[in-house]
TrEMBL record:
<feature type="domain" description="Glyoxalase-like">
    <location>
        <begin position="7"/>
        <end position="112"/>
    </location>
</feature>
<protein>
    <submittedName>
        <fullName>VOC family protein</fullName>
    </submittedName>
</protein>
<dbReference type="Pfam" id="PF18029">
    <property type="entry name" value="Glyoxalase_6"/>
</dbReference>
<dbReference type="InterPro" id="IPR029068">
    <property type="entry name" value="Glyas_Bleomycin-R_OHBP_Dase"/>
</dbReference>
<dbReference type="InterPro" id="IPR041581">
    <property type="entry name" value="Glyoxalase_6"/>
</dbReference>
Length: 117
């Protein structure tokens, strides 16, 4: 049986605005934009994508699933993401080599440091 990862689904209060934020953050393209869903992908026909769907309730607890991003320059990338609207969050990470940020709706993600050899 073949299995392919199609997309990650993110519930959002403003699915289109959050989807646009992540498209800017990742440098991805928008492939679907309507009242029910907003999908972004690395390239139009390349998977996986991230699908944002509208929900009425707000996020209330720490995510049980999050993205880890590994940039070439952690400090510069964190500054860029914060300038786009991300914020620093403390989830008890202490002195780890990654930095935890949250997107504009509070979804946590990590910006990793250099890969260890």
């Amino acid at each position: 049986m073949a299995l392919q990862w199609e997309q990650l689904v993110v519930d959002a209060a403003d699915h289109a605005e959050l989807g646009r934020w992540w498209a800017r953050a990742l440098g991805w393209v928008v492939v679907t934009d309507n009242d029910e869903e907003f999908e972004i992908r690395p390239e139009p026909h390349r998977l996986p994508g991230i699908l944002f769907t509208p929900v009425a309730d707000e996020k209330t607890v720490k995510n049980r699933l999050h993205l880890d991003l590994r940039p070439d320059d952690q400090e510069r990338e964190v500054a860029r993401l914060v300038a786009l609207g991300a914020r620093h969050v403390d989830i008890g990470q202490r002195d780890e080599p990654w930095i935890v940020l949250a997107d504009p709706e509070g979804n946590e993600f990590c910006v990793l440091g250099p890969r260890r050899s």
